[in-house]
Specification:
With 509 residues, the protein is α/β, with parallel strands linked by helices. The chain is built from 18 helices and 15 strands. Strands 3-11-10-9-8-4-5 form a seven-stranded mixed sheet, with helices on both faces. It starts with 20 loop residues before the first helix and ends in a 12-residue tail after the last helix. Bound molecules: pyridoxal-5'-phosphate. The site of pyridoxal-5'-phosphate (PLP) has 14 residues, from helix 10.
């Protein structure tokens, strides 16, 4: 029999001295088994260990074990280990509880959820489905330098100080906050000192922290449309009233007069999610001016724009801001790997203590060992090298996608220009519906996300989001070929049943 666990320390009730010891022990073990505290297959401590723990003779333990063995509760032999029987005797007689008994009024009261919980909706994550063309939001995980990461982690664990096992301050491991500050100042056009940085569990936790700090039920939040549903769902859970703001080829289109009393504006200026537009400098300055005039704060989600392939780098909104209006968040999910769950939030000095207090009451701090490994990975130069290498690889993959699409998807799909990130968007032609296109593509072994999935209001223009980073050039070529077959079929049937007028290319985003 496979050893399930090494011996467990058994917590047994105290013994009534009038009761023979072996009876007390067998009754206590039987009760522990029947109550599920000792699960089928659990290995019991040896007779010697039990005798020492409970100050009994080994003969007493052997007698109790024998009793339970004869009743069918235990199996195995003395010497090779004693286990709780896999199929328990009572299981043969068990009566199943009624499956659909109606919850009583008191049970309903007990299960009542808070207003926030009632508004909270599941946000689907990275299920482990196969990575194929054109899965969006995912870096090339097969190219991550895992052996370097492993070496750093092993060295760190071998020499781990007591402090490293104890914990760190709520805002994170200070050496990591220092290197993140250096990186953001040098490479991302962010202006900050380490004290303004909180290490968080990805952008998602940054959104959660700021939601807790800033949003009261009924507060108005502006959000790009189409936009990131992880942000929309979170703000809704906090009771925010969302207002969808449309986009053009420069980013969010704000109109000063139309939207009073805005608490927060959520934007992805580096690489708009999901359309891929980079917000122009003029629009950034306009947005900052707008926020200043209206008294709103801005949440700048810079989730993947370290990968820039074209155009001049534009400083982050945070770096252009002179009035402490911007909360800036970034992530290691796309530059390294998503399961790391580490990112950063940069806040104006006046918010630091509120973020610190909130973090101390929620997760206390991000996992320290992972923070320390990441810190060494960056300071030893591996982060910069990995980033530069991946930028070249992704640029090559993007160009393969664009070339192939030009040849094989002409007349079916119009790919938008993109300057940064891991994915792009494309407009469907011939009046083909986004959900139908995604379903047809899936049947042909291709992953695409319809843009309508990210829309807060019904969309005029149907399109798809296409990731180009996670798979190699060969898979991209295969994907384009398959997508062309799927869309051609759909377009043909659409043309037969619902012809659309020509000239729809000039419709707005
Ligand atoms: C626009 C956008 N913001 C934030 C996130 C979440 O990032 P993180 O993994 O850092 O929580 C994602 C993830 O895909 C994203 O697409």
């Amino acid at each position: 029999m496979a050893k399930k666990a090494s011996s467990v320390e058994l917590l047994l009730p105290s013994r009534d001295k009038a009761q023979p010891a072996y009876r007390w022990l067998s009754a206590s073990l039987r009760a522990a088994i029947l109550e599920g505290r000792l699960r089928p297959g659990t290995r019991l401590p040896s007779t010697r260990e039990l005798a020492t723990q409970h100050r009994l003779s080994r003969g007493t333990i052997v007698a109790a074990f024998e009793q339970l063995r004869s009743e069918g509760y235990l199996e195995g032999t003395i010497g090779s280990g004693t286990y709780v029987t896999k199929v328990l005797p009572e299981a043969w007689f068990q009566v199943r509880p009624k499956a659909h008994s109606k919850p009583t009024a008191s049970r309903k009261r007990l299960m009542r959820l808070s207003a926030c919980a009632t508004r909270t909706r599941l946000f689907e994550g990275y299920e482990s489905r196969p990575t194929r063309a054109f899965r969006p939001n995912l870096p090339a995980l097969d190219l991550f330098p895992m052996s370097l990461w492993t070496q750093i982690a092993a060295r760190l664990l071998r020499n781990a100080s007591v402090n490293l096992l104890m914990g760190c301050e709520p805002l994170g491991y200070f050496p990591l906050r220092q290197v993140v500050a250096d990186y953001l100042n040098a490479s991302r056009g962010v202006r900050c000192v380490p004290q303004q940085i909180a290490i968080v569990s990805g952008v998602q936790e940054a959104l959660d922290l700021m939601g807790r700090l800033l949003i009261d039920s009924g507060d108005r939040v502006l959000i790009e449309n189409p936009g990131y549903s992880g942000a929309a769902k979170l703000f809704e859970a906090f009771g925010a009233k969302l207002k969808a703001v449309s986009l053009d080829d420069q980013g969010m289109q704000l109109s000063l007069s139309k939207t009073p009393n805005v608490r927060l504006i959520y934007v992805t200026p580096g690489h708009q999610f999901p359309l891929g537009v980079t917000m122009s400098l003029a629009r950034r300055l306009q947005l900052l001016h707008w926020a200043q005039e209206s008294g709103a704060l801005i949440f700048e989600d810079d989730y993947d724009s370290e990968f820039r392939y074209a155009g001049d780098p534009i400083p982050a909104l945070q770096g252009l801001d002179r009035n402490d209006r911007v909360l800036y968040a970034g992530s290691f999910s796309k530059v390294l790997f998503p399961s790391l769950r580490l990112g950063y939030l940069v806040v104006p000095q006046s918010f630091v203590s509120a973020v610190e207090a909130t973090k101390s009451l929620t997760s206390r701090h991000a996992p320290l060992l992972d923070q320390a490994v990441l810190c060494d990975f960056i300071t030893q130069g591996h982060f910069g090298r990995h980033l530069r290498r991946m930028r070249l690889i992704y640029a090559e993959r993007l160009s393969v996608l664009l070339n192939e699409a030009r040849q094989k998807l002409a007349g079916l799909l119009e790919i938008s220009p993109v300057e940064a990130g891991l994915q792009t968007s494309a407009w469907l032609l011939n009046g083909v519906d986004g959900e139908a296109a995604a379903a047809a593509a899936k049947e042909h072994g291709v992953d695409v996300a319809p843009l309508s999935r990210y829309a807060l209001t019904p969309r005029q223009r149907e399109g798809l989001q296409l990731g180009f980073a996670a798979v190699d050039a060969r898979e991209i070529r295969r994907g384009v070929q398959k997508l062309a077959v799927a869309l051609e079929k759909l377009s043909r049937s659409h043309r037969n049943f619902a012809p659309v007028p020509l000239g729809n290319e000039s419709r707005p985003y």
